[in-house]
Design brief:
The protein is an alpha/beta fold. It contains nine helices and 14 strands. The radius of gyration is 20 Å and the shape is globular. Bound molecules: NADPH dihydro-nicotinamide-adenine-dinucleotide phosphate. NADPH dihydro-nicotinamide-adenine-dinucleotide phosphate binds next to helix 1.
């Protein structure tokens, strides 16, 4: 048959990220487009059909979702649901024969990450995690410096990712059953990611601490976590994540200089500088557009998958190690 020029994406879960970032990003995408929606809220069906010119036959709910298997317009299913629902919907998408993008954090346990990876392998579909930073030029400039060593080798990395959470204390991000954890699951994965691309290595050990000041608001999820990671050859990484402090920064210390991104994990425009007084600067584009185009190109042309399922699983291994360290550590100053 004739090769498609643009792959059709169906967004699953039409919350703030789908409506505020993914759907707008898809309007400018070159290799994919918004072909369908999956929602549990009937009122959103008509609103999205009208706004984005989506035909009724490409609209699903959580009950009839599996019949998407028969729909040739949909090539990729993008799961944008609360974290504890990612595994179920990614696996159902794979079984329906669709390529899968799974939002971050990939799932709420390493076991669930494995189940998603296995389902995609068995179905012969491609899988990526919604790590938009992996397609971002600022992030890729840090990766280049780590690899090409213009300032020598990396010795130390520090990365902060947090914001002050306000509003409804019953929101799903603060509900462990739906989120799988608090700041670490939501924002900490960015800091784990930047520690890893900022050193170019995976950590070999981790030691972590949890801090809490508002237990009445953060009833069953972590408020603030710090962690220190050991990388090969004595390289040290520092992580800060919080739902009670604003922080959005990456600092990389090389033997003969440094690089900093601040802001670092937000939707942009980002900002960066190096110790020689130069600015790191790129024209601003929707990160989500670039991310989804990169995945569509991976499927159509076999280019690199910048955020494969194994990367999401690797980060979940570190998340679990951080929670374990907090549980087993907890030394207080006497
Ligand atoms: P929202 O709460 O804004 O939206 C979630 C949507 O999921 C809801 O609107 C609803 O859609 C659907 N849903 C189904 N069941 C439930 C339930 N029990 N409780 C709440 N919602 C439910 O969340 P976000 O859009 O902010 O986040 C969704 C996912 O995207 C998360 O995994 C998050 O980590 C990730 N995310 C990633 C970002 C990134 O930069 N990569 C940024 C923001 C979020 P409907 O009414 O259509 O059924």
């Amino acid at each position: 048959g004739k090769e498609k020029k643009k792959l059709g994406i169906a967004l699953v879960g039409l919350g703030s990220y789908s409506s505020g970032q993914l759907a707008p990003g898809l309007q400018d995408a070159e290799n994919c487009y918004l072909a369908g929606i999956v929602t549990g809220t009937p009122a959103k069906e008509k609103e999205w059909m009208d706004k984005y010119n989506i035909p009724k036959k490409n609209v699903y709910n959580y009950e009839n979702f599996d019949s998407i298997a028969k729909n040739k317009d949909i090539d990729i299913v993008y799961v944008v649901l609360p974290n504890s629902m990612h595994a179920e919907y990614c696996i159902r998408a794979a079984k329906a024969g669709k390529h899968v993008i799974c939002e971050k954090p990939m799932a709420v346990s390493v076991e669930e990450c494995d189940a998603i990876i296995d389902a995609c392998n068995e179905a012969g579909v491609k899988l990526s995690v919604g790590y938009r930073m992996q397609s971002d030029p600022y992030t890729n400039e840090i990766k280049r410096m780590v690899k090409e060593k213009p300032f020598g080798s990396v010795r130390y990395v520090s990365s902060d990712a947090g914001y002050i959470s306000r509003g409804n204390p019953d929101q799903w991000r603060l509900n462990h059953a739906l989120s799988g954890g608090g700041a670490l699951m939501n924002m900490g994965v960015y800091s784990i990611q930047s520690n890893i691309y900022g050193t170019g290595q995976n950590p070999i050990s981790v030691s972590a601490q949890e801090f809490s000041s508002k237990p009445e608001y953060f009833k069953d999820t972590d408020e603030t976590i710090t962690a220190q990671m050991e990388f090969p050859e004595g390289v040290v990484g520092n992580l800060f994540t919080s739902h009670n402090a604003n922080a959005n920064r990456l600092f990389v210390s090389f033997e003969k200089g440094w690089a900093e991104l601040n802001p670092c994990h937000s939707y942009g425009p980002l900002s960066g500088r190096t110790s020689d007084g130069k600015e790191i600067k790129y024209p601003h584009q929707s990160q989500q557009k670039v991310q989804m185009d990169d995945f569509a190109k991976h499927i159509m042309l076999g280019t690199t998958n910048y955020a494969p399922g194994e990367m999401g699983k690797r980060d979940m291994i570190i998340v679990e190690a951080i929670y374990k360290s907090i549980k087993e550590g907890g030394k207080k100053i006497p």
